[in-house]
UniProtKB/TrEMBL annotation:
GO terms for cellular component: cytoplasm. This is Histidine ammonia-lyase. It is found in: Cytoplasm. Belongs to the PAL/histidase family. The lineage of its organism: Bacteria, Bacillati, Bacillota, Tissierellia, Tissierellales. It comes from Peptoniphilus harei ACS-146-V-Sch2b.
Length: 512
């Protein structure tokens, strides 16, 4: 992807990731410019005629009852940026801040926010030159938009606040100057147009959604390897079983597992070694499938939000000014809560498969998958660590969207907590990635033991063989405790997920 051209209407998740993580350049489609300019003309008419319109010549929130003079309308916009930038905590990661900027630009290009084209262009240039505003991650209620974090985004545009440039955190004015950009003064309506929206929670949640979709495929690979190491029963993945309960995620997971395990002679059939497998193997299509269905739903909601106007008030294309609630994050807070639940379940079932592999009474292999257990602990504590992450995920999966707290003198009396919903989902995905890393590493070890126990007389599936080989190139078979530092080996294995290398190699032979 060489560039992304924004129209306000067709930004998708793949393009977002390309801009946020690969620094693909962004342009504005010429067709969007006319609507932006027309919207701005309406604002200037309102200011000139001194008509009372919320956010243009009134205070904000419960202060909408206070009229602002034409002379003070510009100062009003700077004031809200200075006072609304009241966030707290660690800075949002660079990719998320770039996502915030991209989504805000795309939203403003819909031409209903009354902002000047030149102001949008400055934000675009900051994105293309990688001036990354310092945005503390906490402080948004997810209603009236992400006011506090978005105000931090705007500060460097005014020569205020802080921003990263070429990896260095600098005063906002200095960062802009080093990038060859000049700060501006905001005009009427522009401060509100820049900060009133769901942009931060959407950026965080959108990138988390992308990562979760990748993890759902990793879960199928890890689960297939674990099942094969146990000489599991493939009959539970037969297509006919799933067509009679035709949920898309279940059908897709069963297909993935069949394809990954194709050609395996370790896999068995009903009553060949046992009548049934445990749920963590037998029910993978139903468990993973439920998560896949949820992820597809969340992706659909994300891509709607990427191309939505979440400002207030909205200036219609025929000049009407409508004060509504498009800034309210509830429409995304619930999906991001669902996202956390879906990915948490992938981690939960993965941890249970880990236990089955390291437990000698369940696996029939040496305790903790190491020779001479007792002298060696092998993978004992990796299961503890995975269990700790799975348990943490359960707490993080409590929905944020069921909470609310009154703000702004009871004018804003029901809020979404969508920003917290998206950040919780992000943490669940990080934890689950580590759990799946642990399962992949243990499954590779279990397959090595299985092959040795069976005198190498069977063969691995076409997908599991590739996955095993990729892991073995990065992480050696663990012979004993004295030869390894388990944390370092886990980090090596996780790199295969983080870089996409494992999925890339398996996808060369298996269609997902």
């Amino acid at each position: 992807m060489n560039k992304v051209v924004l129209t306000g209407n067709d930004l998708d998740l793949e393009q977002l990731v390309a801009v946020c993580r690969d620094h693909v350049k962004v342009e504005i489609d010429e067709k969007a410019i006319a609507d932006v300019n027309k919207s701005r003309e309406y604002v200037e008419e309102i200011v000139e005629e001194e008509r009372v319109v919320y956010g243009i010549n009134t205070g904000f929130g419960s202060l909408s009852r206070v009229s602002i003079s034409k002379e003070d309308s510009v100062q009003l916009q700077e004031n809200i940026i200075r006072t609304h930038a009241s966030g707290f905590g660690n800075p949002l990661p660079e990719d998320e801040v770039r996502g915030v900027m991209l989504i805000r630009i795309n939203s403003l290009l819909k031409g209903v926010s009354g902002i000047r084209l030149s102001t949008i262009e400055l934000l675009l240039e900051m994105l293309n030159r990688n001036v990354v505003p310092f945005i503390p991650e906490k402080g948004s209620l997810g209603a009236s938009g992400d006011l506090a974090p978005l105000a931090h985004m705007v500060l460097p545009m005014l020569g205020l606040g802080k921003a990263y440039y070429e990896g260095e955190l600098l005063p906002g004015k200095e960062a802009m100057e080093k990038a060859g950009l000049k700060p501006i003064a905001l005009a009427a309506k522009e401060g509100l147009a820049l900060i009133n929206g769901t942009t931060v929670l959407t950026a965080t949640g959108a990138l988390a959604t992308y990562d979760a979709l990748k993890l759902s495929k990793i879960a199928d690979i890890a689960g297939a390897m674990a099942c094969e190491s146990a000489r599991g029963i493939i009959d539970a993945f037969w297509e006919e079983l799933h067509t009679i309960r035709p949920h898309a995620g279940s059908l897709k997971t069963a297909e993935n597992l069949r394809n990954i395990l194709e050609g395996s002679t370790y896999i068995t059939h009903t009553a060949e070694l046992r009548v049934q497998d445990a749920y963590t193997f037998r029910c993978m299509p139903q468990i993973h499938g439920a998560s896949k269905d949820t992820l597809e739903y969340v992706k659909e909601k994300v891509e709607i939000e990427l191309n939505s106007a979440t400002d207030n008030p909205i200036i219609t294309h025929d000049g009407k000014v409508i004060s509504g609630g498009n800034f309210h994050g509830e429409l995304m807070a619930q999906p991001f809560d669902f996202l956390a639940i879906a990915v948490s379940e992938l981690g939960n079932v993965s941890e249970r498969r880990i236990e089955r592999m390291v437990n000698t009474t369940l696996s029939g292999m040496p305790s903790f998958l190491v020779k001479h257990p007792g002298l060696n602990s092998g993978f004992m504590i990796t299961q503890y660590a995975a269990a700790a992450l799975a348990s943490e995920n359960k707490t993080l999966s409590h929905p944020a969207s069921v909470d609310s707290i009154t703000s702004c003198e009871n004018q804003e009396d029901f809020v979404s907590m969508g920003n917290w919903a998206s950040r919780k989902a992000r943490e669940v995905i990080k934890n689950t990635a580590r759990i799946l890393t642990t399962e992949l590493m243990i499954a590779a070890q279990a397959l090595d033991f299985r092959m040795e126990m069976e005198d190498n007389k069977y063969q691995l599936g076409k997908g599991t063989k590739v996955a095993h080989d990729v892991i073995r190139k990065q992480v050696a078979l663990i012979e004993d405790d004295k030869s390894i530092e388990i944390y370092e080996e886990l980090e090596k294995a996780q790199e295969l997920i983080n870089t996409g290398k494992l999925l890339e190699e398996v996808e060369k032979v298996v269609k997902f």
